[in-house]
Amino acid sequence: MGNKVDWTCLAIAENFDPFKIVVDNVERIQVKDVPPNEFIDNPDTPDQDQGCPGVSRRMRLDKKYRNQKFKCGEDNEGYSVKMKMKYYIQYMNTTQDDSPLYIFDSSFG
């Protein structure tokens, strides 16, 4: 499976310096400091990006959707392959994959 030039062996993820030299000029809006109606009434303009640190602290997806199954791919016959959120979180926390799994909510959108 692995060899001397694979992703993990060469520590490519840990040594990917180009991302370290990018200038971060994104304005941060702390969720705890801005009421929801103010954020809705004054959305960011198309030429101004904003980050919202703290948003995910309000969302305990790992608890709320712990046993919910999400699509993460298809098998050879075209049937959906699903994974529970709790197993996906474990996968995210323990894996450094060069081609990671993504999960989808097929009923969304």
Q: How many alpha or pi helices?
A: 4
In terms of DSSP E residues, the strand content is 5-15%
Strand order of the largest sheet: 1-2
How many DSSP-defined strands?
4
Helix/strand/pairing class, anyone?
alpha+beta
Radius of gyration: 19 Å
Low-confidence stretches: none
Percentage of residues assigned to helices: 10-25%
Succession of helices and strands: EHEHHEEH
Euclidean distance between termini CA atoms: 37 Å
| Outline type | flat
Number of domains: 2
Q: Would you tell me the overall average pLDDT?
A: 77
Oligomer designation? single chain
Largest sheet: 2 strands, parallel
3D architecture notes:
GO terms for molecular function: histone H4R3 demethylase activity; metal ion binding; P-TEFb complex binding. The chain has helices at 36-41, 55-58, 61-64, 85-94, and strands spanning 27-28, 50-51, 69-74, 80-84. The chain is of the alpha+beta class and 109 residues long. The protein folds into two domains: 23-59, no CATH class; 66-109. It has a two-stranded parallel sheet. Strands 3-4 form a two-stranded antiparallel ribbon. The mean pLDDT is 77.
